Amino acid sequence: MRLTFVGSGDAFGSGGRLNTCFHVVGDEVNFLIDCGASSLIGLKARRVPLNGIQAIFVTHFHADHFGGIPFFILDAQFFSRRTEPLTIVGPPGLVTWYERVLETAFPGSSRTTPKFPLSLVELRASEAKEVAGVRVRSFQARHGSPDGPFFAYRLEAEGRSIAYTGDTEWTDELIEAAAGVDLFVAEAYFFDKRVKLHLDLATLAEKLPLIRPRRLVLTHMSDDMLGRLESLPFEAAHDGRVIEV
User: Fold this and answer.
1) Distance CA 91, CA 161 (A)
2) Per DSSP, what are the bridge partners of residue 30?
3) Whose CA is closest to 173, among 148, 191, 202, 193?
4) Residue 33 and residue 73: Cα distance in Å, rounded?
5) CA 197 to CA 60: how far, in whole Å?
6) Taking the alpha carbons of 95, 19, 13, 188 in that order, is the dihedral positive or negative?
7) 7, 8, 151, 209: which sits with the fewest CB atoms below 10 Å from its CB?
């Protein structure tokens, strides 16, 4: 499989990077992990065939991870002329938040019936499901109230595995989510400043021996981290970077 960082930035455009959106393609699977507000721009800049995307796995409903959904859906409806099925997977409340984000972006748009089969699949924390050829398992992240809805994901397809922290402060849930995966994409918002709701690199590095991923790539970095990249002993994402999983 191949993962492209369509967007690798934080919510505030640090380093001029686009919001979170990862595109994963294999022999059979084709999906997005998160769809932040700028995702359609990034996808079109990379000339990604949008109608080939079978599923979107959303970690949480903040705009830099979910705000691109209205643009993707309305482009599919009116410009890409999509007829292929699309499944959007997310935490509890996805159905309500889907309508809310469409109405916020384009009032009245949620009442338009898509011209393609659209499924909204809500997962509970620690639930596993098969979607579009991908086995996805959700893990409770800590990015707000204790019950979320905020997820980390472990996604397995075609004999390969990818884990993504989403946005979260450290939680032991990440150990199981990413244990031994082929690719672990992890938030590293600050270098060693420990704050609530976000993960810093110092904490992540301390916990890595418990996880032992085959490959680690850092993402969702603030200016504090971006200014240190050349001196870090870890790989880091950038918009357009392609990883073979």
Assistant:
1) 20
2) 25
3) 148
4) 15
5) 13
6) positive
7) 209
CB 157 within 8 A of CB 167: no
116 CB-contact burial (10 Å; exposed 0-12 / middle 13-18 / buried 19+): middle
How is the chain split into domains, by residue range? 2-244
* Cα torsion angle, 22, 244, 219, 160, sign: positive
Residue pair 225/195 in contact (Cβ under 8 Å)? The answer is no
Amino acid at 7: G
Tell me the CATH number for domain 2-244: 3.60.15.10
* Angle of helix 69-78 versus helix 94-105 axis, rounded to 10: 70
Residue 179 to residue 241: CA distance in whole angstroms = 23
